[in-house]
Specification:
By secondary structure, the protein is α+β, with helices and mostly antiparallel strands. It is built from seven helices and six strands. A three-stranded mixed sheet has the order 1-2-3. Strands 4-5-6 form a three-stranded antiparallel sheet.
Amino acid sequence: MSRSNDTLLLANVSRRGLLKGLAGGSALLLAARWDLGLANEQAQFGAGAMPGGWIDNPNVFIHIDSDGLVTIFNNRAEMGQGIRTSLAMVAADELGADWDQARAQQANADQDKYGNQNTDGSRSMRHWYEPMRRAAAAARLMLEQAAANQWNVPVHEVQTGIHKVVHPASGRELGFGDLAEAARELDVPGRDALVLKSDSELRFIGKESG
């Protein structure tokens, strides 16, 4: 979850201002270096500065039925960006869900619940990629904790497979549906407890689909 201190940010320059600057031969500052500790500066350029900001609570975006069906709520509605599918796939990948047992559902208009729901600027993936991964990582950890509690083993001894949680030492496993009710009763883990999957563990993100 680390991020480089050399992140580049596009300045808020209007088209008219850009053309005026080019015509006059003046230099335009299009990028700036910033420090992650400057929270106010970070919010100025990201979803945090937009109405509703962003939310990464798994109980808001992810619901698992007792039969194992995973419903992922998509809070954005941009046209032509494939957001309804792509954001759901981001969450499903981080969660470890079988895509054949997952579905995307369009969320109602409710920025207090779902965070920013703007439909302009083609910013949905840019602003919601990390929050959706964090929400799914938190849900995955809750499923693992529910399984560990049932097996009476430390949570670090269990791991998530595809649509199931396994205990490699004993060979035991439980499906997402078997753990859903117990997982919902657990507290949502803090962001500092989350570990996102490495690139090698991802099945959908960055991969071509047939």
